[in-house]
Structure formats: C-alpha cells, structure tokens
C-alpha cells in the first residue's frame, strides 16, 4: 500500500503527472456524457420508430 501511496504522491507532485490525471478525468467525463446521450437518444428513437410503424400499419390497413 505504501508503494501505491508513493506513486500517487510522486504523480501529484510532478506537473506531468497532474496533467495526465486531469486528462484522465476529462476523458472520463466526456465518456459519461456520450454514454448518457446515446442511451437517452436510443430510447427516444425506439419510441419514434414504434410510432411511425404504428401509423404506417394503420394507414395501410385503412387503405385496404
């Protein structure tokens, strides 16, 4: 555990280490935003296509 602590301490004290941690946090945040957007969009698209399919089926059924 002390080895991990010394590695983290050296990363926090080193400017390059801090920069890499900032990039990792930024990348994680971007990934979370993309994932939540895709999941939300997927749900909305499923509902949209179901609605379109229902309307097409009703239109075809009414025309026959």
List the helices and strands and how they pair.
Layout: H1 2-13, H2 15-63
Helix pairs in contact: 1-2
Structure overview:
With 64 residues, the chain is mainly alpha-helical. It has 2 helices and no strands. It starts with a helix and ends with a helix.
Give a brief rundown of this model:
This protein is mainly α and 64 residues long. The protein is built from two helices and no strands. Pfam families: Flp_Fap (PF04964).
User: Secondary-structure element sequence?
Assistant: HH
| DSSP summary, beta strand count | 0
Give the CA-CA distance, first to last residue: 75 Å
Largest sheet: none
Radius of gyration: 25 Å
**Percent in strands:** under 5%
Shape: rod-shaped
Main structural class: mainly alpha
Query: Residue ranges: pLDDT <50 for 5 or more in a row?
Result: none
**Number of helical regions:** 2
User: What is the total number of structural domains?
Assistant: 1
Amount of helix: over 70%
Average pLDDT taken over every residue: 86
């Amino acid at each position: 555990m002390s080895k991990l602590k010394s590695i983290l301490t050296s990363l926090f004290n080193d400017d390059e280490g801090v920069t890499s941690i900032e990039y990792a946090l930024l990348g994680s945040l971007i990934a979370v935003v993309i994932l939540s957007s895709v999941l939300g969009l997927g749900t909305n698209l499923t509902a949209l296509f179901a609605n379109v399919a229902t309307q097409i089926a009703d239109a075809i059924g009414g025309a026959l």
